[in-house]
Each structure stands twice: as C-alpha cells, then as structure tokens.
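thought: fold this chain, then report.
action: predict
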Amino acid sequence: MKIGGQPYRTIFPDADGASVQVIDQTRLPFAFELKRLATSAQAAEAIRTMIVRGAPLIGVTGAYGLALAMREDASNAGIDRAVAELGATRPTAINLRWALDHVAALLRRLPEDERAGAAFAEAGRIADEDVASCRAIGEHGARILSQHAAAKGRRINVLTHCNAGWLATVDWGTALAPIYVAHDAGVPVHVYVDETRPRNQGAALTAFELNAHGVPHTVIADNAGGHLMQHGEVDICFVGSDRTTASGDVCNKIGTYLKALAARDTGVPFYAALPFSTIDWTLMDGVRDIPIEERDAREVTHLTGRLADGGFATVEVVSPGSPVANPAFDVTPARLVTGIITERGVARADAEGLLGLYPERRAAA
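observation:
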C-alpha cells in the first residue's frame, strides 16, 4: 500500500542486508516512522510492545527475528533459544508459532554456516506468500461485497473491529483487503470503524489506512455497533482473526464476540477473513483451548493523545486504585460466523467447510 504516494510493506530487509525495517505502529496515526531491527531481541521487543502487531505480521517478524538470531548463534541451541524468546512474546496469535516452527525445522536440516542466509531467504518467502494470500483474500471477499451492493442497489456499510488491514499483515490485510479491492473496482463501500479499546487500533490504525486509501469511513465507539445494526445501518461485518480452530471458532480482538452476537440478532452477515497460517488444526474448541493474552492494565487506565499545540500527553482515565483486567482477545463460536474467507475461497465456519478448502489436512488429521 502507499503512504504519501510511496509504496510500503510493514516489514522489509534493510539496505545493509543484515537487518530489517518495520513501520513503528506505536507512532501512528500522527507520525509515520520506520524502526530498524538488528537483533533477535529487538524483534522480540517489537512484537511484545506492539511496534508490530496483527497475527500475520507477527509471524513474519518472528521469522525475520529467527534469521537475525542466526547471525548471533547459528547452533541448534541458538535456534532453541531464539524460538523460545520470540514465541513467548504474544501467546494468542498462532501465526507466530507456525512461522517459528516452520523456519526452525528448515534450519535444523542445514549446516550452521548456511543457516543465516537460508533463514533470511525463507522469511522473505513467507512475507511474499503473506502478500499473495492477502491479495487473494481480497478478491474472494470483494465478490461478497459486490454481490451485496448489487442486491441492495446502493452503498453498503461494512462494520470492522480492530485493525485487520495492511498494517496487520505485510500488505493488503485480511478483513480490509476485500474492502480495498471492492473500492478500487468501483463498488460503493463505506466502513464503520470500531475504535477498539483499549489500544484503539480501529480509531488509530484502520482509520489511518482508510484515510490514506481514500475509502469512505466513519469511526464509532465500540458500543455503537449494535445500535447501528438494529437500525439497518450495517449491511455486513468483516473481522480478522489471530487464531481460528479447525472447527471454525474465531479468536479476534476483545469485543468481536459481542459484535457477532449483535449481528446474529439483527440478521447481519458476519465474516472472518484470514490466511491459512491463522488456522490451528490442533484445536476444536476455541473458548476452552485458545490461550487468551492478558495485557498490562495501564493500557486500560491510561490514554495517550495529541494536544492542541501538537504535543502529546498521557492521561489517567480510571479511578485510581481500582483493579483492572485487560484480556486482549475473545472467541466467537463458529455458530455465529457466516463464513471464513481465506486465500483459497470462502468456507462454512465448521470442520467440513475448512477441510473443503484444505483437503490435504484430512490426511494430516
């Protein structure tokens, strides 16, 4: 995607050939800055502090982090150490573990002096694969939007939650990719953007993306979605996912489940968009088995924003001394999901639906 007319990926090799550059998402939407990652520890810190975030991007960053680790220690012990450090940063998104296990398995088959170069090459291949997958998700999802617009004969309103655009991937995005493809094809699309407390990824990141691409949108408070659905102002919901079970349960940013309940009550279709690397084929019950990350209470108790004079300030918004819980994700049961959009097409949100798109998993089961 483009910022100021210049194309960017969220992560890319630095010109020095020994490090990578990432977009620092903690600085958005008010400042667009790149950050250089030169060590595995820096990659882990970038994931932990959400300089990079979004399940697919976390996975690619983990792969590059493992490549950086091979420049420091290419032994099997070095692989184990880096996988443990990077894998501990964010427990919910399965893409991270998938990427680390995939690259680590490749490296163990190679001599130590070949591991660093092979790891960088494989991380780059995974990044390219993510771009291609997200573009395909965009094409499949755009057909759904086009059909809805044609049936209604007017602009369609899409509700999103959190940020599942190009900032959450390497490029294009998951839930926003169909919106970009449809918008570029002339389909009249308007997006209701949930602010997504407590980190406000919708208000800060999704709105930033849509602004940059020229997509009509309106930022709303998280709790406004159900009201809009009741009054016919939302035609369809598109969300991303950090982990989806083999049975179609969808884990996504906290608050997604409530949107799905409201969508079911009001007859609004509810889709999750995700690449193959987000599917956890080992799990069937997402509510019971997906680990939910508990993040720092300060994300809830404090807000940082821009002042009228252009400066920035962090303010406390919760009664001092009150206990705070901050679960980062929730799970939407498959029964509330209309369909799952992947790079291979649109599946029913159940085991047979997903296996229909990925028949090779039957043999692996």
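thought: worth noting. The chain has a mean pLDDT of 96.
final: tokens above.
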